[in-house]
C-alpha cells in the first residue's frame, strides 16, 4: 500500500457531501485520508507520495451498493417480463438450483468487476454460497457485508434445517474473523419464507455475536396482506414482536408500510435498504423514502440482484431514487442532492459497519473518480447535480478501496476481466441449456 497524492478538478468533500473543493487534492497514507483541500494547501505535505493527476475528474466518496445478491450476475436478462411468482418459479429458482459453489464464485467475481467499474467500494449481500462470495471479494480487494441466506431448499445445503445448521456454524466462525474489508451478518430471506422457530434462533445468534440481520421486508402488497392473514399483523410488526428490532436490522425494500410500522422503524435500529429500480421493474411499488427520512428513519440505497435490476450501478440508482421521491412527494425540493449522494455512499459504509466521513481527514480512503471528458458533464454549473443527474457508471475511471487502487485509468488491478466474463458466459449457457431455454 503506497502513500498517494491525487489532484482533481473537483472534490465532493465533507461528512454530509456538502463541500465542493475546486482544484483540489487528496492526501492518502496507508488506508486513511489524511488531508483534503485546495491543491496548493495540500502540496505542502508532499513527501514521497505517488502523485496522481486527475485534472479532468471529480472525486466523490466511493459508492456503496447496500442490497444485492451478487452471484445473480449469472442470471442477467433471463427473464424481464414475467410476474413475480412466474419469474421465481419458472426462471430464478430452477436456475439457482443448478448453481455449484464454483459457479457462484465466478458469478460473484463478475459482480465484483461490475461494482468496481461502477465506482462501488463495497456491498451488502444476501445469498447462499457465502464462502464463494467471500473468496471473490478477497481477490477483488473490495468491501462486503456478507449475510448468508437462510432459506428452504438452497442448492448449497438443501432443506431449511440443513441450511440453518450450515449458516449458524459459518456465521459463528466468521464472527471471530477480524477482517477490515469483509464482515458477516445473517440473512433470513423474509418473514414469509422463514418459520418463526428459525427466526427466533436467528435473533438469538445475532444478539450473541452482535451481527446485523439482513432481511427482505414489506416488498409487495400481497406479502403484507398475507402476513396480516397468517400472523394477524404486518411483517415489520411481526418481526418486532419476535424481538428482531432489538438487533441491527437491514430491511430490504420496505415499500408497503403503515404509520404504525414507521413508529417501530423509528424507535429501533432498522435501516431501510431502498432498491427503486428493482421495485419498479417487478412492479412492487415506490417506497416512501422521503417520509422515512423526515422521521429520522435510516435509509440507504442498493440495486437488488441482477436477476431483477439488471445492473449493479449506483449512480443510476441514485438518480432514480431522487426522481421517484420528487414524484411521490409531488415536490421537486424533497431530497437535496447532497442527501441523495449520502444515501449511496457514506451511509452505506455505516451500514457495512465502517465509520466514514466521506472524503475528509481520518476517513477510510475509499474514493471514486469520474471523468469529466463526456459532453454530458458540461458545463459544470453545479458539479454535484451533474454527478447525480447526468453522469453514469461508465464515467468511472478509478476506484480506491481502503487506500489501494483496485481500478486505475479504467484498468482492473485485482481481477482478470475477460477470463471471468468468458467463464461466466459458459456457466450461464450450460444452465440455461439444461433448463431448455
Ligand atoms: Zn433482494
Q: Can you tell me the CATH topology of the largest domain? A: TIM Barrel
Instruction: Give the low-confidence spans.
Output: none
Strand order of the largest sheet: 3-2-1-4-14-15-16-17
CA-CA gap between termini:
47 Å
Q: Choose one word for the global shape.
A: globular
What CATH first level of the largest domain would be assigned?
Answer: Alpha Beta
Largest sheet: 8 strands, mixed
How many individual helices? Answer: 16
At CATH level 2, the architecture of the largest domain is Alpha-Beta Barrel
Number of strands: 17
Q: What is the radius of gyration?
A: 21 Å
In this entry the ligands are:
zinc ion
Helix coverage percent: 25-40%
**The named CATH superfamily of the largest domain:** Metal-dependent hydrolases
The proportion of strand residues reads 15-25%
Structurally, how many domains make up the residues? 2
Plain-language structure description:
The structure is a single chain. The chain has 437 residues and is an alpha/beta fold. The chain has two domains: 4-61 and 357-412, Urease, subunit C, domain 1; 63-351, Metal-dependent hydrolases (TIM Barrel). Helix content is 38%, strand content 24%. The chain is built from 16 helices and 17 strands. The strands form three sheets. The chain has an eight-stranded mixed beta sheet with strand order 3-2-1-4-14-15-16-17. The longest helix has 18 residues, at 417-434. The protein is globular and about 65 Å long. Bound molecules: zinc ion.
Amino acid at each position: 500500500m503506497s502513500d498517494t497524492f491525487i489532484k482533481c478538478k473537483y472534490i465532493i468533500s465533507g461528512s454530509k457531501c456538502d463541500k465542493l473543493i475546486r482544484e483540489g487534492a487528496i492526501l492518502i497514507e496507508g488506508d486513511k485520508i489524511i488531508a483534503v483541500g485546495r491543491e496548493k494547501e495540500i502540496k505542502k505535505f508532499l513527501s514521497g507520495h505517488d502523485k496522481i493527476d486527475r485534472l479532468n475528474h471529480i472525486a466523490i466518496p466511493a459508492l456503496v451498493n447496500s442490497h444485492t445478491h451478487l452471484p445473480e450476475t449469472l442470471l442477467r436478462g433471463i427473464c424481464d417480463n414475467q410476474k413475480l411468482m412466474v419469474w421465481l418459479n419458472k426462471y430464478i429458482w430452477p436456475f439457482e438450483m443448478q448453481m455449484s459453489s464454483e459457479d457462484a464464485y465466478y458469478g460473484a467475481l463478475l459482480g465484483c468487476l461490475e461494482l468496481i467499474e461502477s465506482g462501488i467500494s463495497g456491498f451488502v449481500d444476501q445469498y447462499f454460497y457465502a464462502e464463494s462470495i467471500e473468496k471473490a471479494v478477497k481477490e477483488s480487494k473490495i468491501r462486503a457485508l456478507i449475510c448468508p441466506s437462510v432459506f428452504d431448499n438452497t442448492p448449497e445445503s438443501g432443506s431449511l434445517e440443513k441450511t440453518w445448521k450450515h449458516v449458524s456454524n459459518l456465521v459463528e466462525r466468521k464472527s471471530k474473523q477480524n477482517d477490515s474489508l469483509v464482515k458477516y451478518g445473517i440473512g433470513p430471506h423474509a418473514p414469509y419464507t422463514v418459520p418463526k422457530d428459525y427466526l427466533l434462533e436467528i435473533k438469538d445468534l445475532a444478539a450473541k455475536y452482535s451481527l446485523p440481520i439482513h432481511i427482505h421486508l414489506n416488498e409487495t402488497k400481497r406479502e403484507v396482506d398475507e402476513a396480516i392473514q397468517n400472523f394477524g399483523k404486518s411483517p415489520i410488526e411481526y418481526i418486532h414482536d419476535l424481538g428482531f428490532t432489538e438487533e441491527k436490522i437491514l430491511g430490504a425494500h420496505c415499500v408497503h408500510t403503515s404509520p404504525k410500522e414507521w413508529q417501530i422503524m423509528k424507535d429501533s435500529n432498522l435501516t431501510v435498504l431502498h432498491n427503486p429500480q428493482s421495485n419498479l421493474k417487478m412492479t412492487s411499488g415506490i417506497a416512501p423514502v422521503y417520509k422515512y427520512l423526515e422521521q429520522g428513519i435510516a435509509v440507504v440505497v442498493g440495486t437488488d440482484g441482477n436477476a431483477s435490476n439488471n445492473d449493479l450501478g449506483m449512480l443510476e440508482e441514485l438518480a432514480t431514487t431522487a426522481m421517484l421521491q420528487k414524484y411521490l412527494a409531488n415536490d421537486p425540493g424533497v431530497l437535496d442532492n447532497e442527501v441523495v449522494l449520502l444515501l449511496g455512499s457514506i451511509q452505506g459504509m455505516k451500514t457495512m459497519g465502517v465509520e466514514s466521513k466521506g472524503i475528509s481527514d481520518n476517513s477510510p480512503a475509499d474514493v471514486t473518480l469520474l471523468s469529466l471528458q463526456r459532453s454530458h458533464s458540461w458545463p459544470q454549473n453545479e458539479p454535484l447535480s451533474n454527478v447525480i443527474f447526468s453522469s453514469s457508471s461508465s464515467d468511472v475511471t478509478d476506484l480506491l478501496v481502503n487506500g489501494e487502487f483496485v481500478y486505475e485509468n479504467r484498468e482492473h488491478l485485482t481481477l482478470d476481466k475477460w477470463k471471468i466474463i468468458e467463464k461466466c458466459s459458459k456457466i450461464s449457457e450450460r444452465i440455461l441449456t439444461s433448463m431448455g431455454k
